[in-house]
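Researcher: For the annotation table, I need structure tokens for Phenylalanine--tRNA ligase alpha subunit. Please keep the output clean. Sequence:
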Amino acid sequence: MSAPNNSFDPVEVTPLHPDEVARMREEALAAIAAAQDLAELKEVRLAHAGDRSPLALANREIGALPPAAKAEAGKRVGGARRDVGQAVKERQAALEAERDERVLVEERVDVTLPWDRTPRGARHPLTTVAERMADVFVGMGFEIAEGPEVEAEWFNFDALNFQPDHPARTMQDTFFVEGPDGGDSGVVMRTHTSPVQVRALLSRELPVYVVAPGKTFRTDELDATHSPVFHQLEGLVVDKGITMAHLRGAIDAFVGSMFGEGLRTRFRASYFPFTEPSAEVDMECFVCRGASVGDPDNPCRTCSSEGWIEIGGCGVVNPRVLVAAGVDPEVYSGWAFGLGIERTLMFAHGVRDMHDMVEGDIRFTSAFGSEN
Ligand code: PHE
């Protein structure tokens, strides 16, 4: 049996040569220093400090060395590996700190920036009130009818029994649409929603139960109570055996549902070419219920101490209108009404000035909330 060959002193294998270990160490440290981000550093770590890195492979050679050489080579390679591991750790910490810094800057949120640069809109209260008014009648079985805002004079006037010399036709009230040659076009901005009565009768099967909310136009100056553009809710019933009593009942139902149950209504005799008889519709003031009348100490701002509030016009459909719309007045009869939507909004919501309704200030519309 031979003794251990302790005196054997082979030339060390190349990877364990001091110069080579130093070179691998330097190479690793340079690569670590050059890593620009954490992803790069990870690759560098695998290449220079991982299980298959040159220093790890060199480490494996140590076992084959004679004992005397083992210690020295182990120290050399171990020191290099420790230095590399330490450098990776430090670089890792530096790059993480850099990243955290960058994230703080790049992902900074200025909590003082306005968050509502596109605030949610609100529907205009005229729209929501008009819908609620129409809904009262829809609940009674009425349908919604429509007509154009730019209307043929025949629908707006002639079919409604306005004589050619009726004052409503003159320039004082009506916006006439100019023809292409600057002359008469036969078309106007509708001055009321009543032309929809004729359109509904011409286009629908009888009986007809409709309401028509819409925009109307008259040459009024804008002031606290007038606007050249305003809105009406037209109502029309044409059926067999219809009387003014049904009209009164429908108006009462409307007033009760919009302003409060039990409010009285009254009809004052009036004139419209398209209804006969005709009436102005008043409702009892829902604020003072008449208590302010003749009591100067308790004036009512809502009804100007009149006790009554005018809400529109109405009447029994003139047989001439039925004839113009092709309906036999011997068989059918009906009634119609026109209610002011601005007036309803003013009274139902205490809006005092027409300017608030037309100026488009969102503080006004949003105060009513976004109803659906
Ligand atoms: N069209 C009328 C107006 O604008 C109102 C009305 C409608 C009157 C229907 C009677 C019947 O004043």
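Researcher: And a one-line annotation?
Model: The pocket of phenylalanine is lined by residues 192, 194, 272, 275, 278, 313-315, 336-338 (CB under 6 Å).
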